[in-house]
Amino acid sequence: MSRIVVTGATGNVGTSVVRLLSEDPEVDSVLGLARRVPDWSPPKTDWSAVDLSSQQADLEKEFAGADAVVHLAWAFQPTHDPATTWRTNVLGSIRVFEAVAAAGVPALVHASSVGAYSPGPKDEAVDESWPTHGWPDAAYCREKAYLERALDTFERDHAEVRVVRMRPAFLFKRESASEQRRIFGGRFLPGPLARPELLPFLPDIPGLRVQALHTDDAAKAYRLAIHCDLRGAFNLAAEPPVDAEMLGEMLGTRRVRLPRTAARSALAAAWGLHLLPASPHLFDAVLRLPLMDCTRARTELRWNPEHTATEVLEEFLKGFQQGAGASTEPLRGRKVG
Questions:
Q1: What are the DSSP E strand ranges found in the chain?
Q2: What backbone torsions phi and psi does residue 75 show, to the nearest 5 degrees?
Q3: Is the pTM above the cut of 0.85?
Q4: CA spacing 20 to 30 A to 139: which of 27, 48, 93, 278?
C-alpha cells in the first residue's frame, strides 16, 4: 500500500488524479495540497492548505512518509506580471523538488508539458528526445523549459529519487470548462454563445495544428507512473491532431483562411487592453509546438487514451456552453451571458 501527495490537487488535472488515486486499491492514502481546501471529500483523501509561492510552507513536513509526490501545481495568471507566475511556478517547484529529496520521497512525478518543447514540425511527430528549450517569449513555455533544466540538475544530485516527467498535450474535460474560459478567454466570455450555428466562420490560421487529451486519460498515465519503476519523460496525446479542418468538420462550420499576423494583432490588442488574459506570446508558441509521438507511453507505461481528441473537444464544448465546473475553487462553474 502507498501514500501519495498531490500538489495542485484542486485544479483540472489534480481533481482527476486525486479521484483516480482515491479509487485505487493499491493506494492507502492521498494528501491533496492546494491554496484553498475544498468541500470535496473523496475516499482515503486528506487536504492541507499550502501556498507554494510562500517560503513559509513546510513542504518537507507535508511530504514525510510519502511514497510518491505528484507535482501538478501551476499558476497561469497574471500573464501581465510574469514575475508573479515565476515565483509560484518555478521557485515553488524548486521548493517541491528540494523537499522531496529532504523528506526521502522515493518518486517524483512532475507535470511538464508539450509547452516545454522547442519549436518543431507539424507534419510529423517527435519523441521525448526533442529539445526542451520552449518558446522563450511565452512565460508558460519559458517556465516549463526552465524546470526541465532544474530537474536535470536534481536527477544528477539525487539519483536515489525516481523522476518522471509527464509532457501532455492540451488537457480538457467537461468540469474544466469554466476554469479554462476564465484563464484563456476572460471572466465575461459568454459560454452559451459558443454554439456552431452562431459561428459565421472558423478562422483557419497557418500553423495552428496541436494535440489534445482528456484530463482523465492523463490522470491514468500519472497513476501508472506512480506504480512502475520507469524514469524519464513521457509524451501524452490523443488522436487525431486538432486543426481547422478537424474542427470545421466537427462543428459543421466553413473555414476562412486568416493570416497569422492578423490573428496575432487582434490578440495582442485585446491582451494589451486587458480584455483577454491569454497573451499573444502564448499564441506564438502554439503555432510552433511540435506534434508528439506517444510510443513510449503506449509501449512502456502500457497507457492508451480512451477518448479521441474529437470526443474530448465535443465534451469540453458542451461544458463550456453550460458553464460546467466542479466543487473546488479553481473549477467552480459559472455561466456567463
A1: 2-7, 27-34, 45-49, 68-71, 107-111, 125-126, 162-168, 170-172, 202-204, 212-214, 232-236, 255-257, 291-292
A2: -110, 120
A3: yes
A4: 48
Per-residue pLDDT of the chain (337 residues; tens, 9 = 90+): 599 999 999 999 999 999 999 999 999 999 999 999 999 999 999 999 999 988 888 999 999 999 999 999 999 988 889 999 999 999 999 999 999 999 999 999 999 999 999 999 999 999 999 999 999 999 999 999 999 999 999 999 999 999 999 999 999 999 998 888 888 876 655 555 555 555 667 888 988 999 999 999 999 999 999 999 999 999 999 999 999 998 888 888 888 898 989 989 998 999 998 888 889 999 999 999 999 999 999 999 999 999 999 999 999 989 988 889 888 988 887 655 4
Q: Helix (H, G, I), strand (E, B), or coil: what is residue 34?
A: strand
Q: 7 - beta bridge partners?
A: 33, 71
Taking alpha carbons only, the member of 132, 108, 99 closest to residue 289 is 132
Please tell me the distance from the alpha carbon of residue 39 to that of residue 221, in angstroms, as a whole number: 26
Measured distance CA(235)–CA(238) in Å, rounded? 10
